[in-house]
User: Fold this.
Amino acid sequence: MANILVVEDERLIAGLLKETLEIEGYQVVTVLNGEDAVQYALRETPHLIVLDLMLPGIDGYEVVQRLRNHPKTMHIPILVLSALGGAANKVRAFELGVDDYVTKPFNTDELLARIRSQLRRVQQNFLSPLIGLPGGLQVELAIKHKLNSLDPWSILYLDLDNFKAFNDVYGFLTGNNIIRLVGRICQQMVREYGNIDDFVGHIGGDDFVIVTTPDHAKPLCMQIIDCYKKESIAFYHAQDLERGSISGIDRKGRPYQFPLVSLSIGVVSNQIRRPHSIQEVSYLAAEAKYHAKQSTSNICYISSHREIVHQDPAHATRFSPSSHLPPSFSLFAPGHAQHDVFHVVEEDALSEYEQGVL
Assistant:
C-alpha cells in the first residue's frame, strides 16, 4: 500500500489525517514543519504528500519548490490541504507544481477520492509498474540534473547476468520477483550507505541506475552485491544451487548449463573528466557494464585511458557501440572522453553476452 507523507503543523489535524488515511490502508508519516518534510521526502520518496501551506520555518510554497527542483522527488504528487482558499494562493501553488488543492474544512470522502486519483496518475505515468521506482524519463532527468551541477557524482548501472535463461527455466513470475529483489536491495542499501538525496531508478527489464557521489559508490556496490548473493538463494531449486548452474535449453534447442543469475555493476564518475552530455554518459555507462560482465573478479578498474586492471586478459574485449544498450540509454556519443570507472561483478558472463542473453 502507498506511503503518504502528511505535512501539518496543527497536531490535532495531523492526527486526524493520519487516522483517516491509515483506516484506508495507507502507511502514513506525519511531520510538523517544512524542513523535515523536505528531508523525509528526499530520504524515503513517499508515494504522495499532503501539504499545508502555513508551516513554521520554510512554508509550503518553498517545500513544493525544493521538491520539484530535485529529480528524486519531482514526480511525487503533492496535494495541498490549506485554509488559504484565495485564488492567488491556488494559482501560486499550481504554478510551483502542486497536483491538487483542497481547502479546509474538507470533506473526507472527497479528499480520499483525490488522493486515489493522484496515486493512479503517478503510477501510470512516472513509475515502473513492476516495482514502483522512477522510470526511464526520470532516470534521464536525474542524470541531466547532475550534468548541470559542479558537484562530484558517480552513476551505478546495474544489470542481471543470465537472466533470460533463468526466466526460461523458472518462469516470468519468479523472474519478476528477482527484479523486485534487486530494486528493493538498491533502495535499502542507498538508505543505509548512500546520501539522503541519492537517486534510484528502474530503466526497464533488469536494468537499474543509482546516482550517488564517488565516496559512496564503492561501498554501495559491495553492499548491494553482498546482499543480492545472500537473498537471491531463495529463488533457486536445491539441485541448481548444489550444482551451481541452471539446466536449460538454448535458442537452438540444445541442452545447456547456464550460470546462476549474477549481478554486474558498472560505475561512471566525473572525477577525472567531466562528461558533457547524457549521450556521453550513456555510452560510458554501457561500456562500464559491458566490461563488468567480462570480469572474472569481483572488482575491476578501468583507468582514465581505459587500461583494464584486475581483468582476465582473455576477456579484455573492446566495447562496441553496436552492443546492446538499455531503453533509456539508446543514444550515445562515439567520442573517446577520458573517464574513471570501476566495476563490480558476481560471475563471468562472457558466454551469456555472446549468446545475447541479457
